[in-house]
């Protein structure tokens, strides 16, 4: 076989393209990349969702969300202190309700001494300056796992549900919730909650409307975490949005804003960045994205298998939300990210 001549690797003038623009120039070194950077991620962009449970001084790992634990009230207070010291502005609370306290009508949601209310008061006492967000929806409290009340045929009763959600919101506001976040997707709930909050004197309680909440497979691990996966009958497609729809999210958001929403939420996050972008562009309201349990679990599972670099994927996924216009991100990675940012400056 004849020996092939070595290809020349030495640059010579004839191999040069005649380019005026060479975008790579702006990426040539770290200082240049820093200077060109369009978006930044800071601890102040993060909202940390935590799962609370009954008991004292205990933590239980959520098996489908490695690194995430359910916390007793006292442990939640400790984590709230940690969040505050890391510069995380707000925490969102989700209860794991004792199955014995779940019922068809979700009455435990209206108990001023329920887990969420006790956690609100305990954190407010110990860490008064952290923002506290509570979810308005009945699924942690219903024996059937749905966000609303059902009729005899198992259909969701919209208006009857809204009446209960209003009471739930009032109970949360009384216990100290700063932000009321209806995640139930019933029609008319934002307006009803706003009127009731105002009438009760909670003029400052903000409403973060889950305007675009999709019927998603990515909530699976969350339902494990709050213990509603085993009991959910059917699915949530008559109230949560169809993943095929984008323009409908604009109509949902427009209604929520007319009814009094202070902030909007898109959920899930990564598969719906187009929705996030469209809502932010169309309405300009503070708009948040929820990187949900399944998104977290995917990154963690791949990282645990050595299939990707978990920390890099975490940071890249969160930057994507900033690029798409998010004012803040609900993410189970919050403390880990804030710690990394604090370490690395
Ligand atoms: C319930 C609720 C859900 C999530 C937040 N609030 C689940 C659902 O709608 O079934 C999911 C959050 C997550 O997956 O991280 N209203």
TrEMBL record:
Please give the superkingdom of this protein's source: Bacteria
Q: Where is this region: Disordered?
A: 1-25
One of the entry's Gene Ontology molecular-function terms is: zinc ion binding
GO BP, one annotated term: heme biosynthetic process
Q: What are the binding positions for Mg(2+) in this chain?
A: 252
Please list the reactions this protein catalyses: 2 5-aminolevulinate = porphobilinogen + 2 H2O + H(+)
> Which Gene3D superfamilies does the entry mention?
Aldolase class I
Enzyme class at the top of the EC tree: lyase
CDD domains, A to Z: ALAD_PBGS_aspartate_rich
Q: Tell me the route in metabolism or biology where this protein functions.
A: Porphyrin-containing compound metabolism; protoporphyrin-IX biosynthesis; coproporphyrinogen-III from 5-aminolevulinate: step 1/4
Q: In the UniProt entry, which residues are flagged as the active site?
A: 213, 267
Task: Give the record's keywords alphabetically.
Answer: Heme biosynthesis, Lyase, Magnesium, Metal-binding, Porphyrin biosynthesis
User: NCBIfam families from the entry?
Assistant: PRK09283.1
Share what the entry says about its subunit structure, partners included. Answer: Homooctamer.
Which family, according to the similarity comment?
A: Belongs to the ALAD family.
Question: What protein name is recorded for this chain?
Answer: Delta-aminolevulinic acid dehydratase
Read off the lineage from the record.
Bacteria, Pseudomonadati, Pseudomonadota, Alphaproteobacteria, Hyphomicrobiales
